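re the bet — no i am not wrong, look at it urself. input seq straight from the record:
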Amino acid sequence: MIRADDLRETDVLPHCQGAVSPDRNYVYCATFQLAWDGLRQSLSNEPVGLEGDPDLAAVLNQGSFDRASLSATSYLAMAGRADQGIVESIRRAMAGKFPNATLQVPDPPEQTAL
């Protein structure tokens, strides 16, 4: 397995917007959009607002990805509130769905809301 951080000429992107450079490779990570869609649905389909109004949030709020486009056994896409235990929920789901995975879900920085 190769970590995305080790791909020197490749960018893993959470959306398909933006400029493409001929000297870079791009991999679209649809599960990021899936997790964002789930978060947005949990907020009554309202756009998700983040501190500082980053462009990334605006792009993700405009997009969506159909879960049926991926095999349900091939990914995990979850999002939620830190104070409601989403990190532990993700860890449990990862361990259950991908028991041989070596990726560890890190603790979020203090004051993390989502």
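see?? The mean pLDDT is 92. told u. also Residues 30-42 form the longest helix (13 residues). so pay up
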